[in-house]
Amino acid sequence: MIDLHYVRTSNGLKIAIMLEEIELDYRIIEYDIFAGDHLKPQFKAINPNHKLPAIVDHAPEDGEGAMPIFETGAILLYLAEKSGRLIPSAPRRRMEALQWLAWQISGLGPMLGQGYHFARYAPEGQDYGIARYTREARRLLGVLNYRLSDQPFLAGEYSIADIACWPWLQNVGNLDIDRAEFPAIQRWWDGIAARPAVQRVVRSSTTEVPTAYVQRRMSLTPAQWSNLFGDKLLDAVASPDP
Ligand SMILES: N[C@@H](CCC(=O)N[C@@H](CS)C(=O)NCC(=O)O)C(=O)O
């Protein structure tokens, strides 16, 4: 059994989709990040970085007891290796999957994440930040489109690299980017959206993404702000073990 410590965001969706695809037994432990659930001291033992998602595998292969894992790139790789699925076995293709996974976790995710941050939460008049991250998002989408223009999937076959990227392409409209401007991305995105495992996740009441996580502008209360971007976050990292 795997516990999925989950929030309904792009990073959370990656792991919910992976678990549905490989059909391992899992249960969802849902967090409300606006309420600061992820800052609770007991979560530090699972992820000292206090970010979601994370998993705990209660039956790891080494038999040495429950194993917590954080960072979506590491979790996807772990689950691919545990299940023997969704990572190519041919060495060159496998390396392609790892490259595109690294590209997502170091580029596409952080850049779109910052873009969404400025577009959604920053006070009005943050044009420089929005322009900077929108330009970078467009550049990265251009790279993705180029790759997918002669490959059905990022590593030739459907893999953890596609699962890592797909949820991030849902809300590019928040940056005034139309996915349809990138025809190869749109074709790839639609194909993945139609997969039964993906449908199960996006349609399920426990894993669907509610408006609070996707709407274009959001105004937070001071407590929510502190939980997400302010002092509470810093305090959680500095706090001693429970
Ligand atoms: N690099 C991390 C990013 C995780 C991340 O930023 N998660 C967000 C939700 S998508 C989060 O926990 N936000 C709460 C916060 O930043 O306080 C990963 O890939 O797992």
TrEMBL record:
TM annotation in the entry: none
Which family does the entry's similarity section mention? Belongs to the GST superfamily.
What is the protein's given name?
A: GST-like protein
| Residues covered by the GST C-terminal domain | 90-213
Alphabetized SUPFAM superfamilies for the sequence: GST C-terminal domain-like, Thioredoxin-like
Q: Which residues form the GST N-terminal domain?
A: 1-87
The major lineage groups are: Bacteria, Pseudomonadati, Pseudomonadota, Alphaproteobacteria, Sphingomonadales
Question: By its UniProt entry, which Pfam families does this protein fall under?
Answer: GST_C (PF00043), GST_N (PF02798)
Q: Which InterPro entries match?
A: Glutathione-S-Trfase_C-like (IPR010987), Glutathione-S-Trfase_C_sf (IPR036282), Glutathione_S-Trfase (IPR040079), Glutathione_S-Trfase_N (IPR004045), GST_C (IPR004046), Thioredoxin-like_sf (IPR036249)
